[in-house]
Design a protein that fits this description.
Length: 128
């Protein structure tokens, strides 16, 4: 499960989580419940190589299949993360990307053991 900046045509790069399409109900990753991809999303799977299923950190929890070239690591290089957040100029979109980045950063802190499960769930309520 990797965190990435995922780029869809017509949208800014957006924080997302690469999810294994065979994820079973009830699966948790480092204490974080991972949603199961809906059947209609799985049916959209491309036969092209190097295509990944991502779950965006938006409030709707949107799924998308994207090629590797549309993904860039998130949480590895602070300069890249800062530039991606700043790419978005429009008010509502900028607010959405910033909120998603905060949710993704919280996820990363939990995975890295920097916060407890209780802290994760308490702080994640701030973004709902």
């Amino acid at each position: 499960m990797d965190l990435v900046w995922a780029k869809c045509a017509g949208y800014p790069a957006y924080p997302a989580l690469i999810v294994d399409p065979s994820t079973e109900p009830g699966y948790t990753h480092c204490g974080i419940p991972i949603p199961v991809p809906p059947p209609e999303v799985l049916k959209q799977r491309s036969n092209k190589p190097n295509t990944f299923l991502v779950l965006f950190f938006d409030t709707r929890r949107t799924w998308q299949w994207l090629p590797h070239r549309k993904l860039q690591p998130l949480g590895v290089d602070p300069d890249v993360d800062a530039s991606k957040v700043l790419e978005c100029k429009k008010g509502a979109a900028k607010k959405s990307v910033t909120g998603a980045f905060k949710r993704a950063s919280l996820h990363l802190q939990m995975v890295n053991g920097e916060i407890t499960e209780q802290e994760y769930f308490e702080r994640s309520k701030e973004f709902d």
